[in-house]
Amino acid sequence: MTAIRASDAKVGCGAIRRVLIVDDSRLQRRILASHLEKWGLEVAEADSGEMAMQVCTDWAPDLVISDWMMPGMNGLDLCRQFRKLPTFGYFILLTSKSEKEEVAEGLNAGADDFLTKPVNAGELRARISAGARILSMHRELSQKNALLTEALRKLQSFYDSIDRDLIQAKTIQESLVPERTRAFGRSRVDLLLKPCGHIGGDLVGMFSPDDEQVGFFSIDVSGHGITSAMMTARLGSYLSSSFFDQNVAMEKRPDGSFTLRPPHDVAAQLNARIAADKGIEEYFTMVYATVELATGRVRMVRAGHPHPLLLRADGTAEFVGEGCLPIGLMPEARYISNEFELTAGDRLLVFSDGFPECRVMGGRYLEDFGLLELVRACEGVRPGRAFLDELYGGLFKIMDNEDGLEDDVSAVLFEFYDG
Questions:
Q1: How many domains does the chain have?
Q2: What are phi and psi of 341, to 5 degrees?
Q3: Which residues contact 273 (CB under 8 A, 6 or more apart)?
Q4: Taking the complete model, does pTM exceed 0.70, yes or no?
Q5: d(CA 236, CA 218)
């Protein structure tokens, strides 16, 4: 290998600064080098493919001009080895070959261009200029890819941080429903809560101030995601099963004990609280019901929520409850309580719109009729926990979405037995 030389002339070949000439003919190398140095390029020479690889490793040329036919490692083999290096450079093969098969062989080996010997100076300059444009675009793309990779790394780190926060938020939200099943004498309440993401805008719960009555609710906050989940956390504190002093559904008696407020009164209080908060655009639908455990008398408010399904012990079923406006939608909204009675063996299923508005096979919505079919398929399943699991499993099987739930799914099942 001869010494690396560079002319003092102004560089005029763009992205190409360093050129390696590989040829076993010293005369051919000198002819090419004289042109390249005149154009202001740094030039290195190698008389074999093996020597050329050493130069490429140590010096990283922008352009390699190599003879095809050389003893030992020929131009094709050199090109293949050159393409294995981590740096990118332009590769021109010098050849007397002009057949399409030979050209295809050179391209398959990784060559970018060809020059036919004897080399014409004008053509050489034109080929170098073309290579400089390609090399410039490659480097610009590499730089942009590096910037994009770094941006994606930072974005992934940001998403990982959010994901960790959401996992913790899910744990906190799950704590809002400390019990998923509870017996009240011979009666029982079971809860189902399946958010479509880490966290959701549905909330279910139950509480009882004494052995004579029980209250339970199903709530669906408008929207999805973090904002809805924050609202459910707030509502969970308003309807706490642990701190009756903070529960708007509880009324304190003079003797210090608690009793349940009428459902319409609870809805009105919640509506007043939400409406009084400035900047909150979310509203929610709700079914809140109270049951006298001795008689089966139900009082229920339905504020924009789907009609609960009353499953009688004799096998009949009906959707029940007159509707009122969602809570937090209008400050002056009025709420009424619906009343009906349960007999031994009756069950009341309260559910969010994640059930009837679930898209099933064929793209249609489940709707009330489809939900009733799912319920019929689970009719003999008891107790309530198993019933709700079977109901959700049946829904999951017929969903028209491979990615899972599109909306939160929740339900409350009350099973009544007097005495």
A1: 2
A2: -120, 145
A3: 238, 248
A4: no
A5: 11
